[in-house]
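Work package 3, deliverable 3.1, input record:
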Amino acid sequence: MTTQTVSAPARRRSIREQWNNLSRPVQWAFLLPVVVLIYFLPVLNPPLIATTGTDFPTAMFDVARYALVAIGLNVVVGQAGLLDLGYVGFFAVGAYVAALFTSPNSSLHHLPYLWTLPLAMVVTMIFGVILGTPTLRLRGDYLAIVTLGFGEIIRLVADNVGPLRGQSGFERVGTDANGTPFFANATQWYWLTITIIIVVLLLVGNLERSRVGRAWVSIREDEDVAEIMGVPVFKFKIWAFVIGAAIGGLSGALYAGKLGFVNNQSFDVITSMLFLAAVVLGGAGNKVGVLLGAVVVAYLPLRFVQLADYNYLIFGIALIILMIFRPQGLLGARQRLLARGRQAYQRLLGRGEQISGESALAADTQGGPR
Amino acid sequence: MTHSHEDTPVEGGLVAEVARMSPEELAEHEAEVAEVVAVDRDIQVEVGETLLELRDVTLKFGGLTALDSVSFGIRRGEILGLIGPNGAGKTTCFNAMTGVYRPTSGQVLLEDAPLGKATRHQITQRGIARTFQNIRLFGEMTALENVVVGTDARHKTSVLGALLRLPRHHHEEKAAVDRAMALLEFVGIADRAADKAKNLPYGYQRRLEIARAMATEPKLLCLDEPAAGFNPAEKDDLMDLIRKIRDDGFTVLLIEHDMRLVMGVTDRIVVLEFGKKIADGLPAEIRENPAVIAAYLGVPDDDAA
């Protein structure tokens, strides 16, 4: 073993460790400029990053929309370990809720667009319960197949139920009674979505560092043992589904409002797979990872338009290579499950917890404080 | 790599501090830890009354009778050993108590109330916790997090409460972490609290399983072969730990193969063979019991004839 091979992973680990040992305010001080930069990306329109084929703010909104979906799907797939292949169904429900209450094509009572966001969440949560109650007794592959079916059912209902207008769809979604759209340009939609992402990230983080997050991860790790340790497994699986569904529905409603048009064409199985690809590629169970995955899945085809035709081919190959060399995704699963963990580890050991997935052997050779 | 930090008044934290303690300080600290680990009992209970009772429990898998009307009781505050040759039905018996299997006939009663159709997590909440013969920890969680999952069995924070960090969430998180830290110290693995469970050495994993089960505040703690794979010195440590657990107010049911350990630590022993109870008594009686000796050593041909 040469020194080079040893030092490379050790160095990466130490950066991560250093970051973990920074206090919360210092971490925020580092994060704040990054967040500001993210907000101003569509305005700056940086030369190398900007997309050529699509309008850049629109592309950025698409990326943000995927990121929100990935956060929601990560709750279900990454944290609770429930493989959901029909997540696009919830996305579709959210989009249709926004369409039905804001489009002049709909005979339903007209609502202000912003009201449809919480409404879309509530409706998708109900769908989450309806789908979850019978299916969450299944595990693994069986659950995956049933959820795949759910996604298709939603799409076919949109195809065939008259009031949902099939392919002709709903126009001028997100407009008020006078027909003016909610936001005039894509940058404003992007800002709204980024703000929502930050709020959702904080709330999902709260859940992760509580008995809810611990219940989810314990179910993912070993469902039987979780139950024997007193975790009401079924209840928390439903909650994972419901919360994931709400975030998916929210993203769908944003998508519908931004695009201004909803029909049955954008909710197919392939979209579901792309959502899942974002999560798996980035690293299921890692919030930063799935954000990264969403950026890869949504941004790269828009930036390199000439490659867009080979989109699925490239993703397919990339996923296969990734699964061979890094099955845990770009960033491996990683969670903090204690609201007061930082203080606890410091008090007990005088150092932070072991975050990375490296084996004990790697940690020992690296000579950490023991 | 040392990080000076305002949160760390002591270099190396509590673990290093404990290592530097004088014997008197250490005894005092251990008493404090045991105090935190001990379960709050609302009512003072009589030691010696029956805590858990199996009444004619029969369990059949198709044509196979794994348990054949087994009856015995576990008294509060005792360490009961459950022994028997391989395949005698010890673990099946365990599974019937913890709700993994439902008895085909007969009843399991905890404090005179039948477990009936209670689900597995309800049984845990009613006060039976267990460890596993083949270690089954949550590998991706740290040792501390594993134990806190156990304490969650007693928590009432709702999803909304956790989402919005309502006061009960804060209160329960603090209590849970304090108790989990004390439990890790109690079983002697606090120095690896921050490591993922899958990266812990074997002996630590076994102890972590015990800590996680104790975290659910059980009335009855069931240990399924906790000494499997241990060397004699480690077995001695484990015996001390089991006694310490009992002295802290827990009732312990122990399944074990190692006769020295069973004879050394238990107050009473129940022996199973082919799903039937063949003996029930003090360790000294069991040692002399001809049926038990026959079950373990076999019967000479001329005797059997």
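Chain A touches chain B through 56 residues (CB under 8 Å).
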